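Practice problem: predict the structure.
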Amino acid sequence: MKNSFILINVLLLLLTACNDESLEETTTELTPIAQVKTIKLQQSNINETLTVYGTVLPWADKVQTISLPYSSQVEKILVNDGQLVQQGETLLTLKPSKDALLQLAQARQELAAAQQAQKLLQERVELKLATQQDVVAGQLRVDQAKAMIENLMARGVTQQQQVMTADHAGMVSMVSVQQGQIVPAGNPLLQLVDKNQWVVRLGVEPEDFDHLQVQQEVFITPVNKPVAQPVKGRIEIITQQIDPATRLLNVFVRPEANQALLINDFVQADITVSAKQTLVVPRSAVLPDGNAYRLFTINKGHAIKHTVQIGLENATQFEIISDDVKENDEVVILGNYELQDGMAVELKPL
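Answer:
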């Protein structure tokens, strides 16, 4: 009986030891190990940009308005809105309107009548029936009629056809007439814009006014057309009033080249408002944490949590501000959502 009791105790001790070992193995297996990717924290240049939108327009002082100084009728229109033209290329043809020809005929009739009256007046002077003052007044009437005819001829009224050509290479920004239309003297026929004289008008929120300055660098990208590289430009004019239609501040940018930009195109512009060299991480490395942000580094296979502040930022990077993060620390950029302070980690290959 005593031997049986001893045997039972031995078996119980062995069973307890096995259970403890099994529990220890289970506990070890349940310890979480997070898989993460990291990069070494480095100092780098970061640019903070302001993203705004706008429209491509011609410079106002580079728009040539073509018109005629007499009433005319449009015969042919040989160009369209937005068409590029070369110097000397024909834009449209016109002929004097009936009103212009009537004005010329009336001026010629007035000259003939004035000359006839002057001849009769001279005969009256010889008969002592008129004074020299009357002769002067008659000659003035003749001179005025001659001046009217010369003016109409100089303006081209006597030409059967007026051919309008481009004074310089450029783009037709607007055709203001239609074929067969009677155009009053001085009314615009079309507008021609100098080549490579575009401007980008941007709408900026008023609170961002203090971030802007003349000659500030801007990168312009068409919204509806992919381009290999954005067009570089610089701020030329910052207006001092709010546009009542958009409630935005109008800023005008001169692009360095226009090859990728089209008149009236809608564009995105990134304005560099600040730049410096500092500790920079990808945006994925920083997580919101109440009123601050958190970031994890790796030390001896474990995650270390750091509370950080954000400085400059752009679309891909953050400047981080912290007393306990330094250059060459291993910063977690992937898998950090699962981490807790002190958690064991396993590095994934990049």
